[in-house]
Design a protein that fits this description.
mainly alpha, 85% helix, globular
Length: 377
């Protein structure tokens, strides 16, 4: 039985590696591909803004259904949609085509993140350690994808790099078929709606749904396309952009793994939040190698905050509705991200990158101060 659980965990981590590796590649490729195909920064911002809300709405639906009908179906769906979304990007030349790709990508990501944490929590006895390992694996795999992306663009060009994502995504489907689901329950609409009703949740849970919205509002100003195009505006080439962003994500994974073991959740949030509100404005007013150095070091901040987020989830989600509770929290996060991502392109076009970075830092102060004192109580 123990070996079976271990094998199932390994399959989930393998699927996560493939997904995050592809995400790392697309993080570099897509903004530069859109720029290459003559999309302006305002249009790019609006297209990227579609992903968080599509992701969250579909994730919420998948999470509720999976709490009753099991998780395996959604891992299979993730593999199929990974192939489809990368195929759409391969063929995209217009804003509408890229938007369709983002909608599909958001749905494919939702099908994974709606169930991966819940599946592991059901299988593992060491819950915090397992979630930390999941996030670390996601960071490191994404870092490798980002590090390679710039070189792949130079070696095999944009379209063949996207084709590689299609081929890797195809491996997810047979891997998902190896999963063994828990016993399914009869779907109950009333019970499902009860899981979604915030009136049935503890006060702490509702407060953090609102705080996650504030966090998302802050994160959207530096998410998606922003860092790659920031480096591009600073005259760095595609290989260098991939190296810098890959190093940042790798540093995030390492710092998450190291600091999460030694620090309490509230201290992770406070330290990460303070560094966030200091480093991001500095990044916005920097250029050249200093900007690149600060961007890479920002990975430490990402790791601290990632560890804090996983800790918050463990404190406030309920066993009988793992996926739904996590989905409700992320609804706040991605709702906020959608709003700020949609406006980020306009801010950058009008005042440069310093404007969204400074605004992000100021908004984030609200999140980490309130989260710190609430966690202490």
């Amino acid at each position: 039985m123990k070996g079976t659980v271990l094998n199932q965990t390994k399959i989930i981590f393998f699927i996560q590696v493939l997904n995050s590796f592809i995400s790392g590649i697309l993080t570099i490729v897509l903004p530069l591909l859109m720029k290459e195909r003559n999309l302006d920064i305002v249009t790019i911002g609006l297209i990227f803004a579609s992903l968080p809300m599509i992701f969250q709405l579909t994730r919420m639906s998948f999470a509720v259904v999976s709490d009753f009908l099991g998780r395996k179906l959604f891992f299979i769906l993730n593999g199929l949609l990974t192939v489809l979304s990368s195929s759409i990007y391969y063929l995209s030349y217009t804003p509408f085509a890229f938007l369709l790709g983002k909608v599909t990508e958001g749905t494919k990501s939702a099908s994974l993140w709606a169930v991966n944490r819940a599946f592991l929590l059901e299988k593992s006895g060491k819950k915090r350690k397992t979630l930390v390992h999941l996030r670390t694996t996601a960071f490191v795999s994404m870092a490798v994808g980002s590090l390679l992306a710039g070189f792949l663009i130079v070696w095999i060009f944009y379209t063949n790099t996207v084709m590689l994502c299609i081929l890797i995504g195809a491996v997810i489907v047979p891997a998902s078929l190896l999963l063994v689901d828990r016993k399914k329950e009869k779907f109950n609409i009333r019970q499902a709606l009860g899981h979604l009703d915030l009136r049935n949740k503890e006060k702490t849970f509702t407060i953090f749904v609102l705080l996650y919205f504030v966090m998302g509002l802050s994160f959207g100003f530096k998410s998606g396309y922003v860092f790659p195009l920031f480096l591009s505006e600073n005259k760095f080439g595609t290989e260098t952009i991939g190296i810098f962003l890959g190093a940042q994500i790798l540093l995030a994974g390492l710092s998450l793994y190291l600091f999460t073991k030694k620090m309490k959740i509230e201290k992770l949030i406070l330290l990460g939040g303070f560094l966030y509100s200091v480093m991001l404005p500095l990044l916005g007013f920097s250029s050249g190698l200093l900007a690149a150095f600060l961007l890479v070091m920002f990975g430490v901040v990402e790791g601290l905050l990632g560890g804090g987020q996983e800790g918050i989830l463990l404190k406030i989600v309920r066993k009988e509705s793992y996926s739904t509770d996590i989905g409700l929290l992320m609804m706040g996060l991605h709702g906020g991200t959608t709003i700020s991502l949609a406006t980020s392109g306009f801010l950058i076009a009008s005042w440069g990158f310093a404007a969204p970075f400074l605004l992000s830092a100021l908004i984030f102060v609200i999140f980490y101060v309130f989260a710190y004192f609430h966690l202490r109580e």
